[in-house]
Design a protein that fits this description.
It is a single chain. The protein is α+β, with helices and mostly antiparallel strands and about 180 residues long. The chain contains one helix and eleven strands. The chain has one domain. A hairpin with an 8-residue loop joins β2 and β3. The strands form three sheets. Strands 2, 3, 6, 8 and 9 form a five-stranded antiparallel sheet that branches. Strands 1-11-10-5 form a four-stranded antiparallel sheet, with no helix packed on it.
Length: about 180
């Protein structure tokens, strides 16, 4: 079974890499259209994530280029490399991602969603991957000053026995 999980993980990583190589030329063209001197810097401070049981991969901001004053979100691909199914709540009001920033970002907490909003319980079986976006409605991240900024992203989930768990990764991005 361990070989099967590793094979699924490998296939997930290969599929992700193919999608990045397919999309990158289009992203590069869009980035060049924004600014002829644009450099997108994303540096991962913890590159051992592939061996972790639950791994946030491909962390990035949306939009990819954050300008001063932009409100942005954090995107991640979550890879379940554990031997068990994990679950998390995801929807317009709730996000399993939370972030803190070392500088250059203002985090605002506003009005939360109303009770009638849709909530989705997402389950990832061993070897599966899924996309998550944060923060949920009611919290905003806004670029406040130019420069390189380190964000620490925490993904919250539940293990198959119902215990709460989380995994944290950091990456660096530029605010222009």
């Amino acid at each position: 079974m361990n070989h099967e999980v590793n094979t699924k993980t490998l296939y997930a990583i290969i599929a992700f890499a193919i999608s990045i190589f397919t999309v990158c030329p289009f992203l590069g063209a869009a980035a060049k259209a924004l600014s002829p001197t644009l450099v997108i810097n994303v540096l991962y401070h913890d590159v051992s994530f592939v061996n972790s049981r639950v791994s946030p991969l491909a962390l990035h901001t949306q939009p990819l280029v954050v300008h001063i004053g932009n409100v942005f979100k954090i995107h991640a691909i979550i890879l379940n490399n554990s031997p068990a199914t994990i679950s998390f709540i995801s929807g317009p009001c709730d996000s399993p991602l939370s972030s803190t920033f070392d500088k250059n970002v203002v985090v605002k907490h506003g009005v939360r969603c109303f009770l009638g909003a849709a909530v989705h319980l997402v389950k990832l079986r061993p070897g599966e991957a899924g996309q998550v976006i944060g923060p949920g409605i009611g919290t905003t991240y806004q670029g406040a000053a130019p420069g390189m900024t380190v964000t620490t992203v925490t993904f919250h989930y539940q293990s198959d026995n119902g215990a709460s768990a989380s995994v944290t990764r950091s990456f660096e991005f530029n605010i222009v």
